[in-house]
Predict the 3D structure of the following.
Amino acid sequence: PNPTPASNHLTVRVDGKMVRLAFDDILFIEGLKEYVRFVCRSGRYVSLWSMKNLETALPAGRFLRVHKSFIVNAEKVRALEGNRLDVEGHMVPVSRQKREEIVRRLFGGG
């Protein structure tokens, strides 16, 4: 289920329940084969999604694919240390291929 462009949340199925995750609550998303783990301020949620479908369902300016298995909420990134982003205290890997684009988009060039 994709959010409408005006929405501020994503609805996901978690353990048979429909859960609304506010974009502002999502810190990052980790791909786990055919599932994804949403790491949020309010907790962690595992749902059946593909990273590709999720990437198109999320607002592009706000969420950024930083690795084959990770999408981060750009507003929650605190720092870049080597090839890892500090997302409110969680260290998320950055792929070498995407590092330059991430520096440009999140930190204005480096």
In short: Helices lie at 51-57, 96-107.
